[in-house]
């Protein structure tokens, strides 16, 4: 199973629970999980992260750098299109909610979860 990571996973972990100097194993685990194909994120999340210590870790950590998929990847785009087709076909969702979903943070999370090697849709 593939898990998509939002920016807050990195930022909140570094600020609150898993500071780099206190729990380096957490950060080593993220790198390992990327290598095993269990976690990923997307380029948009990578660009969103501005926290100095997290930014430095990402920039220095070649192992996790590969965990940021391109939202321009054709497989990601095709899978996202399938999801949005399903959403738009659902009568229980109001048009305004469908539109908000398509342009909001949930859409980015879906894109990150639909990486070519993680998609099961």
Sum this structure up briefly.
With 121 residues, the protein is mainly alpha-helical. The chain has helices at residues 7-17, 24-35, 43-48, 52-60, 62-65, 74-89, 95-103, 105-113, and strands spanning 3-4, 39-42, 68-69.
What does this molecule look like?
This protein is mostly helical. It has 2 domains: 3-69, no CATH class; 74-113. The protein has helices at 7-17, 24-35, 43-48, 52-60, 62-65, 74-89, 95-103, 105-113, and strands spanning 3-4, 39-42, 68-69.
Helices and strands in order:
Blueprint lengths: L2 E2 L2 H11 L6 H12 L3 E4 H6 L3 H9 L1 H4 L2 E2 L4 H16 L5 H9 L1 H9 L8
Parallel strand pairs: 1-2, 2-3
Strand content bin: 5-15%
Helix run count: 8
Low-confidence region ranges = 116-121
Main sheet specs: 3 strands, parallel
Report the structural category.
mainly alpha
Q: Rg from C-alpha positions?
A: 16 Å
User: How helical, in percent, are the residues?
Assistant: 55-70%
- According to DSSP, the number of beta strands is 3
Q: Compute the number of structural domains.
A: 2
Rounded to the nearest angstrom, the distance between the terminal CA atoms is 12 Å
Task: Tag the structure with descriptive keywords.
121 residues; mainly alpha; 3-stranded parallel sheet; 63% helix; disordered C terminus
């Amino acid at each position: 199973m593939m898990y998509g990571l939002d920016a807050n996973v990195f930022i909140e972990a570094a600020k609150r629970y898993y500071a780099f100097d206190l729990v380096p194993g957490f950060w080593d685990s993220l790198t390992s999980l990327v290598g095993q194909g269990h976690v990923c994120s997307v380029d948009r999340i990578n660009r969103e992260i501005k926290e100095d210590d997290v930014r430095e870790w990402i920039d220095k950590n070649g192992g996790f750098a590969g965990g940021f998929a391109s939202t321009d990847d054709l497989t990601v785009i095709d899978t996202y299109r399938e999801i949005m087709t399903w959403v738009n076909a659902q009568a229980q969702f109001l048009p305004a909610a469908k539109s908000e979903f398509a342009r909001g943070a949930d859409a980015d999370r879906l894109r990150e979860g639909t990486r070519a090697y993680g998609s099961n849709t």
